Amino acid sequence: MNQMVNHTRDGVDALVASVTVATREPERLAYLGVGELIAWSQVFRWRKVRNVVTPFLHPLLAATILRTNREPVLLAGMGGGLVGNLAKLKHPDTTPVLGMFGIAANHAAYSAALVTHGARPSPVRVGLRAAAWASGIGLAVWKKKQLIAPTIVAGVFVAATSVLADDPALQDGSTPAKGLGHAGNLLFLSEGIALLRETVLTGDSLGHRILDAKMTVAGVIGHMLMVDGLTRR
User: Fold this and answer.
1) CA-CA distance, 214 to 220, in Å (whole number)?
2) Shortest CA distance to 213 belongs to which of 43, 32, 52, 37?
3) What is the spatial distance between Cα 148 and Cα 139, in angstroms, rounded to a whole number?
4) 233 burial class (0-12, 13-18, 19+ CB within 10 angstroms)?
5) Model confidence over 125-180: pLDDT tens digits?
6) Alpha-carbon distance 182 to 10, whole Å?
7) pLDDT, tens digit, for every residue of 3-38?
8) pTM recorded for the entire structure
9) Which of 34, 156, 146 is CA-nearest to residue 90?
10) Dihedral of the CA atoms 16, 20, 25, 27 (nearest 10)?
11) Within 10 A of 190 (CB to CB), how many other CB atoms are there?
12) Which of 37, 64, 141, 165 is the most exposed place for a label (fewest CB within 10 A)?
């Protein structure tokens, strides 16, 4: 229980540290503002607003990388994330290959950086994510076959990011580093919600829109914590 409480406290500290950066770095303030605007646009279905501002998310995170360690693999990953976001602006089943490679590239970059910093998988962490990944493939097979390949390929890399980021060995350093596990889990959750919305939770009620907003918030916070955990160690 104490370990869980401490882990939660570390996550809160990392989140506060990442948000506080906005008082010093304008690109972080812009990133948070864009993320919030996207979330509200999903609640109220401001599609034009969402389409205009979404492409700015990953470039604004790339600005953080350029300001800190300028790690090439992470910058390449931001390019992949941008492609993935652009694909999601359309129906995922109309651009499955584009979205698949964008998300996969983004998370492959995260995984590579995590391994470079010493992250290693464990059987328990792999087993938990593998079970969720297999469930996602089952949903795609059952409800939307166009998403089978993206779920298999992109899902592997998203799960790998979550597995590696949750390695406790990475979380003994700076406050941002302590948020890596939470970052990986939030990104895994965000992509999981996206799959649910395309398969079984396909309505457009207020509840569904709020779920979309929560998906966005999870992704925005997850990417921010991941980048800070890898670049501000």
Assistant:
1) 10
2) 43
3) 9
4) middle
5) 999 999 999 999 999 999 988 889 999 999 999 999 999 999 998 877 789 999 99
6) 9
7) 788 889 999 999 999 999 999 999 999 999 999 999
8) 0.96
9) 146
10) 50
11) 20
12) 141
> In angstroms, how far is the first alpha carbon of the chain from the final one?
27
Burial annotation 101-125 (CB, 10 A radius, 16+ → b, else e): bbbbbbbbbbbbbbeebebeeeeeb
Contacts (Cβ under 8 Å, ≥6 apart) of 223: 57, 58, 61, 81, 183, 187
Residue indicated by tokens 């401001």: 46
In whole angstroms, what is the distance from residue 106 CA to residue 83 CA?
Answer: 9
* SS3 call for 122: coil
201: CB partners within 8 A, 6+ apart:
208, 211
Candidates 14, 42, 15; CA nearest to 215 is 42
Q: Which amino acid is at 115?
A: V
Q: Which position has the token pair 């993320």?
A: 35
Q: Which two tokens stand for residue 83?
A: 């492609």
